[in-house]
Design a protein that fits this description.
This protein is an alpha/beta fold. Helices cover 35% and strands 25% of the residues. The strands form two sheets. Strands 5-4-1-8-9-10-11-12-13 form a nine-stranded mixed β-sheet, with helices on both faces. Strands 3-2-6-7 form a four-stranded mixed β-sheet. The chain starts with a strand and ends with a helix.
């Protein structure tokens, strides 16, 4: 039975290795180029499945993205409600610098088509025990939020990429805000992590905040809990998809165990493993790899 319904994007990632991010007016030679599967939705669905939780992916691709559908199926994702359209698949251009940091340009493609019928069909199968996960790379988030809440589902919102569309959604209906510091500042006007969490809970007291802080770890705050998890120290190759890996493993572990502390620890380990590998979806570790990592690194 599906535990997480992920309404999210699928993209074809064009990844360029560069000595530094391109400056205005500059032409820069790449030191490497590769095509990878990506899109925040696809990455998170694969992470959820790898973490051992049943997940249905809702969204759209073009004919050029059929290999993405095959990949998700191979990795254990239910794609019953993934549509193949005449619109090209979403595309992303990524710059990766020598430290593994990235800069990304996205073209929405099929991710921005009309998805209301797909969302409705997926939610019609829901029992009310599931979590709906959304990001901000698709066109039907308001419909998805309202229909999910009407069915009694919890809603987790990874507010990335952050923009006015994300802020205009019915945020009072969100159960989990999964954000980084930049997104937290845009949401609250605050820069200090404690103040970000305080501001979110003041405005949305029924919600929980998962605030990722890069090398400083992650903070979880709700009306009942105040938890932190340190980041694991690893040799970073490519940070692309680390946040998606974290999100998928966190929600999957919550659904499987209801233990927030374990979810934070497991997700932090999965994210640490992901940055030691190139690509986004291709860098997501299996749960066996995560368990092995934790057996060595966890206290």
């Amino acid at each position: 039975m599906t535990k997480i319904i992920n309404y999210g994007s699928c993209c074809i990632d064009h990844v360029f290795q560069i000595p530094h991010f391109v400056r205005a007016g500059e032409t820069l030679s790449s030191t490497g180029y590769a095509i990878f599967p990506g899109g925040k939705g696809l990455n998170q669905s694969i992470a959820i499945a790898e973490a051992g939780c049943a997940v249905t992916h809702v969204g759209a691709i073009g004919e050029d993205g059929r290999w993405l559908a095959e990949l998700m199926t191979t990795r254990g994702v239910n794609i019953t409600h993934l549509s193949v359209t005449n619109t090209p698949t979403g595309q992303a251009i990524l710059q990766i610098d020598p430290s593994g940091e990235n800069a990304i340009i996205i073209s929405g493609g099929a991710n921005l088509a009309v998805h209301g019928h797909l969302i409705e069909a997926a939610l019609n199968e829901a029992t009310g025990d599931e979590i709906l996960l959304i990001q901000n790379e698709t066109s039907g988030n308001e419909i998805a939020i309202r229909q999910a809440k009407a069915k009694g589902l919890q809603v987790a919102f990874n507010m990335a990429p952050m923009n006015e569309n994300a802020l205009a959604l019915p945020l009072a209906l969100i159960d989990y805000f999964i954000i980084n510091e930049t997104e937290g500042e845009a949401l609250t006007g605050k820069t200090d992590p404690t103040e970000i969490c305080d501001a979110v809970l003041e405005q949305y007291p029924q919600s929980a905040v998962v605030l990722t802080l890069g090398q400083a770890g992650v903070v979880f705050r709700s009306a009942e809990s105040n938890l932190t998890q340190a980041a694991y120290s690893v040799d970073t190759i490519d940070t692309t998809g680390a946040g998606d890996t974290f999100t998928g493993y966190f929600l999957a572990t919550i659904m499987k165990t209801k233990r927030v502390e374990l979810a934070l620890q497991t997700a932090a380990a999965a994210a640490a493993l992901s940055v030691t590998r190139p690509g986004a979806a291709t860098s997501i570790p299996t749960r066996q790899e995560v368990h092995q990592f934790l057996s060595v690194h966890a206290p």
